[in-house]
Amino acid sequence: MASILEYVPGKTAVHRMNPVTKLFFLAMCFILASVFPNLILLTILLVVILAWWGVARIPISRLKVIFALLATTIVIFLLVQGFFYWRGKTVLFTLFTFNVGGKNIGAYTLEGFLFGVTLSLRILCIVFSIPILTMTTPLSTFIVALAKLKVPYSFNFTLSTALRFAPLMSRTWGEILNAQKLRAYDFEHMNFFKKIRAYVPLVTPLTLAMLKRSDELDVAIESRAFGAPVKRTFVKEIKFQTVDYIAIVSLIILLILNIVLLPYTVLY
Questions:
Q1: Facing residues of 107 across strands?
Q2: How far apart are the C-alpha atoms of 130 and 211, rounded to whole Å?
Q3: Which of 23, 10, 8, 11 has the alpha carbon at shortest distance from 240?
Q4: CB 102, CB 112: distance < 8 Å
Q5: CA 113/CA 80 separation, integer angstroms
Q6: Quick one: pLDDT at residue 7?
Q7: C-alpha–C-alpha distance, residues 42 and 51, integer Å
Q8: What confidence tens digit (pLDDT) does each residue in 151-183 have?
Q9: CA of 213: how far to CAs of 109, 132, 168, 171, 250, in Å?
Q10: For residue 82, which of 51, 111, 41 has the smallest C-alpha distance?
Q11: Backbone angles phi, psi at 249, to 5 degrees
Q12: Phi, psi (deg, nearest 5) at residue 89
């Protein structure tokens, strides 16, 4: 999961956008995917997000684990909703007959399948929108943008620390695993329960490493007078460009389209 939060340098139009625009895009994707259950509009939203991926040149190879988790989740949703969706009426096929509350849970229904597709599209839209912000925006630039929006400085610092620690923990964990493998500690050929027992002792060095980092961070912020009541200045000024206005207007149009078509939405 850490890879989805790490910045990838680039010179694309998305990289040059104001972080506020990308934050607005992320918020709109969350709203549209969560509130509006229109299958067609969710598909359009996913296409728009993937188009942004193409423009931003998001490195797909770094997200293989995310794709695997999403694929597993989608398959589970399609199976569970297809068989157990309570509004399902149009039977596509039947594996067995077992009635629960007047419904045959052995019958796979079209309505359940469509509801599973809708849920899957919602998850894809939300998850796929995150890299557009995190993988194209340096954390320092993002924090400056939040400060420009008058977000409390303490909150900005907490957020930046959390986002920095996630990839750091992932890298530290990888280093610990590699160190154990160099000592002929074979994790790959262990069964599930032995692997869990083997991982338990590795939590201690990871915890100690994170505590050491936290102590170093505490000394660093105290030496820089963190929290002093002074007017802050910024090395880099962040401004809106033409591409930002185009993106914001496009997102607003998409929101209006969802609102207009909401009465015609089919609830499966």
A1: 94
A2: 28
A3: 23
A4: no
A5: 9
A6: 80
A7: 14
A8: 777 777 777 777 777 777 878 888 888 888 777
A9: 53, 28, 10, 13, 43
A10: 111
A11: -60, -40
A12: -125, -40
- Is the pLDDT confidence value at 6 over 70? yes
Q: Which residues contact 254 (CB under 8 A, 6 or more apart)?
A: 28, 32, 44, 45, 48
User: Over the stretch 88-115, which tens digit does the pLDDT of each residue have?
Assistant: 788 788 887 777 766 767 788 888 888 8
Sign for the CA dihedral angle at 60, 65, 39, 135 comes to: negative
Closest CA to 227 of 150, 157, 140, 123: 157
User: Cβ(7)–Cβ(59) under 8 Å?
Assistant: no
How many Å separate Cα 24 from the centre of its chain? Answer: 15
CA count, 13 A, side-chain hemisphere, 99: 3
Secondary structure of the chain in HEC code, one letter for each residue: CHHHHCCCCCCCHHHHCCHHHHHHHHHHHHHHHHHCCCHHHHHHHHHHHHHHHHHHCCCHHHHHHHHHHHHHHHHHHHHHHHHHCCCCCCEEEECCCCEECCEECCEEEHHHHHHHHHHHHHHHHHHHHHHHHHCCCCHHHHHHHHHHCCCCHHHHHHHHHHHHHHHHHHHHHHHHHHHHHHCCCCCCCCCHHHHHHHHHHHHHHHHHHHHHHHHHHHHHHHHCCCCCCCCCCCCCCCCCCHHHHHHHHHHHHHHHHHHHHHHHCCCC
**Out of 44-58, 126-140, 216-230, 250-264, which region has the weakest mean confidence (pLDDT)?**
216-230
